[in-house]
Design goal:
Shape: elongated
Distance between the termini: 38 Å
Strand content: 15-25%
Order of helices and strands: HEEHEEEHEH
Structural class: alpha+beta
Number of helices: 4
C-alpha cells in the first residue's frame, strides 16, 4: 500500500474516532432513531449532517446502542431524533456492566418490543447540526471523547503529509509546465507549428 492510500485510510479512521459526535453516552440509552427526508430541502440539512458526520462517531464509541435511520420521501414531514431509554435495572449492584458478559447467554437476545423507561424526541427540522448534537449530548448525559496525545500526533502527521503532498503536487505541475514550454520551443525551432 502506498503512502497516499495509507494516509487516506488513517485519516478516515481518525475521523471516526475523534471529532464532533465522538462521545460516550449514558448506560441507560437503549436506542437512537433518526427520521428525516432524503433531500436537504425544507430544513432537513442538519438531520442529514448528523446522520453522515456524527452518527458514525457515536456508534464507534457506543457499539451496544442500537442506532437506526429512516429516510422518507416526505419532504414536508418532520425531522426527528428519538432516544429510547432503558428501564432501570432490577439489580442492586451499581457496578454492573451494561455490556453482556457473553453473547451466547439467552438473556442477551434483542427484543423489538422491550419496555423502555422513557422516550425523548428532538426536533431536528431547521436546526444546525451542532445544535442537534449538543441537545442530544445534554439529553443523554453524553461525555465528549477527548483525543489522546497519540491520536493528536497521528492527526498532525496526517495533516503534515497532506501539506507535503500539496507542495509536491504544485512542484510537479510547475515542472510539467516548464517541460511543455521547452517542447513547444523545440518544435518551433524545428519549424513545426506551436501547439496551444
Amino acid at each position: 500500500m502506498n503512502i497516499a492510500q495509507r494516509t487516506k485510510k488513517l485519516k478516515a479512521l481518525l475521523d471516526i474516532r475523534i471529532g464532533p459526535g465522538a462521545a460516550v453516552l449514558a448506560n441507560d440509552v437503549k436506542r437512537i432513531h433518526l427520521d428525516f427526508a432524503r433531500t436537504i430541502n425544507d430544513g432537513h440539512m442538519g438531520a442529514r449532517k448528523v446522520w453522515r458526520k456524527h452518527l458514525p462517531r457515536l456508534k464507534y464509541h457506543n457499539p451496544a446502542i442500537s442506532m437506526t435511520v429512516n429516510r422518507t420521501r416526505d419532504q414536508e414531514g418532520p425531522a426527528t431524533l428519538t432516544v429510547f431509554f432503558a428501564p432501570p435495572s432490577r439489580s442492586s449492584s451499581t457496578t454492573a456492566s451494561s455490556a453482556p458478559s457473553s453473547s451466547t447467554e439467552p438473556s442477551t437476545a434483542p427484543s423489538v418490543n422491550a419496555p423502555t423507561k422513557r422516550i425523548e424526541t428532538i426536533d431536528m427540522k431547521h436546526k444546525h447540526e451542532s445544535e442537534i448534537l449538543s441537545r442530544l449530548l445534554e439529553l443523554t448525559k453524553g461525555i465528549p471523547y477527548e483525543a489522546s496525545p497519540d491520536e493528536l500526533a497521528e492527526l498532525r502527521d496526517v495533516d503534515d503529509e497532506k501539506r507535503r503532498s500539496e507542495r509536491d503536487r504544485e512542484a510537479q505541475a510547475r515542472l510539467n509546465e516548464v517541460k511543455r514550454q521547452e517542447k513547444a520551443l523545440l518544435d518551433l525551432a524545428r519549424g513545426g507549428v506551436v501547439a496551444a
